[in-house]
Specification:
Elements: E1 12-13, E2 20-21, H1 43-50, H2 53-65, H3 68-86, H4 101-170
Antiparallel strand pairs: 1-2
Helix pairs in contact: 2-4
Length: about 170
């Protein structure tokens, strides 16, 4: 099923969910679908289709890292670590005495992985920008060609009208 517009622009049928949308709709109105309704490819759908497993994981990790919950989680983790290993919370087992060498090693390893995930996500975002610019260029070229075609047609019609007017004047 493809997106279709009625003869008088009655509605557009979503190719994914089959829902009806207004004639000026750009995305499907169904909140579970949100498919692009254009005749040409939508860049986000193309990018999602081409994404690889590790890129999707990197994007999710980067989204979590950019979330305030990440800071809260780490603040709680550090407070518990320090409280347990300094004896504030009474426990018989202290696994990392001051100056908390194990915590430093764990944070260094975490920083390496976070940097990797962020770089993968950033590279992917860069490829998104390139893909979007290519699709924008394609749309611009198609639009230019269509405008040129309409311009040529209007010029032809104008010439025909002028010839008809000239022949009517001659009579």
């Amino acid at each position: 099923m493809s997106a279709s517009v009625g003869a008088q622009g009655r509605h557009i049928t979503c190719p994914r969910c089959g829902g009806e949308n207004p004639p000026d709709g750009v995305f499907c109105g169904n909140p579970d679908c949100r498919k692009a309704l254009g005749e040409f490819k939508y860049s986000a759908e193309e990018i999602d289709r081409e994404s690889r497993f590790h890129e999707r994981i990197a994007d999710r990790v980067a989204a979590f890292i950019g979330n305030p919950y990440f800071i809260v989680l780490h603040a709680v983790w550090f407070l518990l670590w320090v409280a347990i290993n300094t004896g504030v919370i009474t426990m018989s087992v202290r696994f990392d005495n001051y100056p908390f060498g194990l915590l430093g090693i764990i944070l260094s390893i975490e920083a390496i992985f976070i940097t990797g995930f962020l770089l993968i996500s950033q590279n992917r975002q860069s490829s998104f920008a390139v893909k979007r610019s290519e699709l924008d260029y394609e749309v611009n070229v198609r639009t230019f060609r269509e405008i040129q075609s309409v311009k040529d047609l209007l010029q032809s019609m104008q010439q025909r009208i002028e010839r008809i007017e000239d022949s009517l004047r001659e009579r």
